[in-house]
Design brief:
Low-confidence stretches: 450-458
Strand order of the largest sheet: 3-2-1-4-7-8-9-10
Bound molecules: nicotinamide-adenine-dinucleotide
CATH topology of the largest domain: Rossmann fold
Distance between the termini: 53 Å
Largest sheet: 8 strands, mixed
Number of domains: 2
Number of helices: 17
CATH class of the largest domain: Alpha Beta
Length: 458
């Protein structure tokens, strides 16, 4: 099948490379000449494990090509997948990229020769595909709605494991305007062995928001518990959450062994959620609800809890290191989570102005982030690849991503580089790591009871 992939960001490029590896001919299109040039040379514009190998293979066997020429890419193709950004504009998604892509596809639609399905992969609020995308395609193409297909096919991949997620999906949601459109999408995914849900366009749009809203809710719920524990001497959120996780409805027994569902990784305390999707999507759904006259008090609280979390973490830091004025704090991790170079709405970046407001100098380390990407963040010092230099002379370190290299670091040596070896573990990632006695270790979610140096939590 010939597929036109519009947008080569995380979703577009991963989808394109994976569909090419399934045997489709994928023509990727982007408005950015620079991005197209990079991809054509076999390089991914962002870090994603396994993507470049897949990309190079698909470029070499001719199954994937990349261009800025949408009309040429649509020649003879059966589907256009729209995977352009829908960044936050206040509390709403900015639909201007989706609108532009829809109009451009409409203008080039006649060059597709034959029946062509326009499918939205970008995350959009209910009604966008039917009311905006369809209308723009129709106007620009001059075709009637019965002459082209229309689908909404939300994407559930996670950055950091996007290729694996795409290749082994839990489900594929196909929102279809009619069964003819849905049948074409079914053919696109015919080699994928998972439930394929054929639903209405709005159901598909809402399913994506439901998914991200639930994940955000679990994180905020865990962080609210962490804050309660921090205010309750003698309690520990890890203990409380362990007691929760062992409920058989959350972790059932199967053949004598406990099944630990991945959803439990969202029932963990931390520094708050971020990234390009969760905050944007929760806010978009709240705004959509408001427009429809539907109150969303749960989602409102999810965002409030998330906004407050960085302040609570700074309080723990102050409790450990004292007044931060004139002190040097090392942020260990800048991206919104480990294993990615995505800085969009990163909670580590929410900590930065708070630390500055307290008069701290902020140094940072993140092996996934380039010096150029970190240049405009307002850091006092940044090093991509040297943990030791980052910690040199610092008064405290605040771990903000659960990067496995922090688990395996030589903390005895690192502690000796610090002016004051205080380590706040914003992800509770080092709880089970035996740390040297010289480190003063402060996990989050403990009420007035800090771990003794060198001890571990069961
Ligand atoms: P991105 O910002 O990384 O990439 C968007 C790409 O689209 C850019 O390369 C941009 O140049 C290109 N583009 C913009 N307008 C274009 C046009 N008219 N024609 C061709 N190319 C154009 O975005 P992303 O992170 O891949 O997200 C895309 C959509 O998928 C968003 O709606 C997002 O919410 C959703 N989503 C993202 C993820 C994720 O983990 N990033 C996961 C699931 C869903």
């Amino acid at each position: 099948m010939i597929v036109t992939m519009v947008g080569t960001g995380y979703v577009g490029l991963v989808t394109g490379a994976c569909l090419a590896s399934c045997g489709h001919e994928v023509r990727c299109v982007d408005v950015s000449e620079e991005r197209v040039g990079l991809i054509r040379s076999g390089q991914s514009p962002f870090y994603e494990p396994g993507l470049e190998e897949l990309l190079r293979g698909a470029l070499a066997n001719g199954r994937l090509s990349v261009t800025t020429d949408l009309e040429a890419a649509m020649k003879g193709s059966a589907i256009s997948l729209i995977a352009v950004g829908t960044p936050a504009h206040g509390d709403e998604p900015d639909l201007s990229y989706v609108e532009a892509a829809a109009s451009q596809i409409g203008a080039a639609l006649r060059s597709a020769d034959g029946y062509h399905v326009v499918a939205v992969k970008s995350t959009v609020v209910p009604g966008t595909t039917r009311n905006i995308v369809k209308t723009l395609v129709q106007t620009a193409s001059g075709l009637s709605p019965s002459q082209f297909g229309l689908c909404m096919n939300p994407e559930f991949l996670r950055e950091g494991c996007a290729v694996a997620d795409f290749i082994n999906p839990d489900r594929i949601v196909i929102g279809e305007s009619d069964s003819k459109s849905g049948t074409v999408m079914e053919r696109l995914y015919e080699s994928f062995d998972c439930p394929k849900l054929h639903v209405g366009l709005e159901d598909a749009e809402l399913t994506k928001y439901a998914s991200n809203s639930l994940l955000s809710t679990l994180i905020s719920f865990s962080n609210e518990l962490a804050a309660l524990c921090e205010a309750t001497p003698g309690t520990d959120v890890e203990t409380v959450l362990k007691g929760l996780h062992l409920d058989h409805r959350l972790s059932p027994m199967s053949h004598g062994a406990r099944v630990v569902p991945e959803i439990l990784t969202y029932l963990r305390a931390g520094i708050g959620f971020g990234g390009s999707c969760l905050p944007k999507d929760v806010n978009a759904l709240r705004t959509y609800g408001r427009r429809k006259g539907v109150l969303t008090p749960i989602l409102d609280a999810v965002m409030t809890t998330n906004t407050r979390r960085p302040e609570q973490v700074v309080k723990i830091l102050e409790g450990a290191a004292g007044n931060l004025s004139g002190k040097t704090v090392a942020l260990l991790g800048l991206a919104f989570k480990a294993g990615t170079d995505d800085l969009r709405s990163s909670p580590a970046l929410a900590l930065l102005p708070l630390l500055k407001a307290h008069g701290a100098q902020v140094r940072a380390y993140d092996s996934f982030i380039s010096k150029e990407a970190a240049a405009d963040l307002g850091l006092d010092w940044f090093c991509a690849g040297n943990l030791e230099m980052t910690l040199e002379g610092s008064d405290a370190a605040l771990l903000t991503t659960a990067d496995p290299q922090f688990l395996n670091a030589d903390w005895t040596h690192l502690a000796s580089c610090m002016r004051s070896p205080i380590l706040i573990d914003g992800r509770n990632a080092l709880r089970n790591v035996r740390l040297p006695d010289s480190i003063r270790y402060y996990p989050i979610g403990q009420g007035g009871r800090f771990l003794e140096a060198g001890s571990t939590v069961e």
